[in-house]
Amino acid sequence: MSDAKHLDTNTYPRHIPVLLQETYEYLVQENSLIQDSASGTHLDCNFGDAGHVEYFAEQAHTHAIALTIHAVDADQYAIDRGTSFLKTNKAIADVPVIIHKGNFKDIDALIPKNVHFTSVLFDLGLSTYQLGPSHRGFSFKYDESLDMRFDSDEIDSQSEDQFTAYDIVNFWSPDTISLILKNYADESRAWKIATAIEQARTKAPIASSKQLADLLIAVLGENKKTGIHPATKTFQALRIAVNNEIQILTEVFTKVLRLVASGGRIGVISYHSLEDSVTKRQFKEWEEGDMGKRVNKKIIIPTEVERKQNPRSRSAKFRVFQKNN
User: Fold this and answer.
1) What is the pLDDT of residue 6?
2) What is the rounded CA–CA span in Å between residue 275 and residue 271?
3) Taking CA 93 as the corner, what is the angle to CA 52 and CA 72, rounded to the nearest 5 degrees?
4) Which end of the chain has the least Cβ crowding within 10 Å, N or C?
5) What is the dihedral of CA 169, 173, 176, 177, to 10 degrees?
6) Is the backbone of residue 125 left (phi > 0), alpha (psi -120 to 50) or beta?
C-alpha cells in the first residue's frame, strides 16, 4: 500500500463520523466537570479520519473551552490521514491534539501516568477508508487478500506468523467457524456457511474477499427485500475474531475507567448487538458496584435526518457512563 495513495481522498473519501452533536453534547457540553472549569482533557480511542476529534476541537474553540485532546489508533495510515485533515483546519490550531500510536488495548501504557480524562469516546465502527479499497479484505465489495488486521505495523512486517482471516477461512474447523459466526454476528445460517467454506477450500484456498463473497452469494442467495449483502455478517465475525475485539473491549473498559477523572464520562458508539451488549453489561456492573451511573439507560441513536444523510449510521447505538465524584 503506497503511503501517498492512501491519502488520496478522491480514491478514499473521508469517513463521515456518526452522532457528532450527541457525543459532544453528552461528553463535554453536559459534563459539569468540564463546564465548571471551562477546561478538560478528552480521549478519543479511535482516531481514524479525525472526524470526532475535529468536531470536538471546533466546538471547544467556539465555546472557549481549553480542551486538550488525546487520540489513539493502531493504524499508521489512519493517523496520517486524520492528521492531514486536521492540518487543513486553521481554526483549531490552538487546540492541542496528541496522538498515540497503538492498540487501545494497551491504553494504560500509551497514556502518560499523570494524565486523567474528563471525557472518553469509543467509536467501534470501521472507517470508510477501511471499508474502501484498503488492501486488507475488510469489505466484500473489493477483490483483496483476506487479511482484516487493524494494526498497520503487523501488515507492513509481512511476517508469516501473523494471524489473518485467511487462516480462519482455510484452516479452522467448520464447527469453530460456525461458532464464531453465531457468537460474533448472530448469523442464523452459520452451519450452512461453514460447511460450504469447508467444501470450497478442498478444491483451492479461499484467498480473497471476492472469492469468499461470491461463495456466500452462491450459497445464500441475494436478499432483494433488504438489500443487505449475504456476506455482511460473515465478514463482521471474521474481523472480530482476527482482532480479538470483544475480549479487548472488555479489558480496555477496566483500564480506561482508571484513567477517567472523578465525575468524568465515558461514551461508547457500537454498531452491532454483541458490542452493545458488552457495553451495556459493563456500565450496569459499574453502576451496581457504586462506581458511577449510567447517564442514559435508553440508547441514543442517530436522527432520521442523519440516517438518511449517512446510511452507515443506521445501526449506531450510543451509551454514556459517568464516574462517581
Assistant:
1) 56
2) 7
3) 40
4) C
5) 30
6) beta
Nearest to 70 by CA among 88, 51, 96: 96
Residue 105 vs residues 100, 117, 272: alpha-carbon distances, Å:
12, 17, 20
pLDDT digits (tens, 9 = 90+) for 178-193: 999 999 999 999 999 9
Q: Which residue has the cell 509481512?
A: 158
Smallest Cα–Cα separation from 53: which of 96, 111, 11? 96
What are the residues whose beta carbons fall under 8 Å from the beta carbon of 283, sequence distance 6 or more? Answer: 294, 319, 321
Longest dimension (CA), the chain: 66
Q: Give the residue ranges of the chain where pLDDT is below 70.
A: 1-11, 126-136, 152-161
Written as one string, the DSSP assignment of 158-174 is T-TT---HHHHHHHS-H
Which residues are CB-neighbours of 255 under 8 A, at least 6 positions away? 107, 108
**Cell 470526532 identifies what position?**
52
Rounded to two decimals, the pTM is: 0.84
Residue type at 212 in one-letter notation: L
C-alpha cell at 252: 480496555
pLDDT at position 13 is: 76
Is the CB of residue 13 less than 8 Å from the CB of residue 132? yes
| Measured distance CA(292)–CA(323) in Å, rounded | 4
Residue with cell 492540518: 87
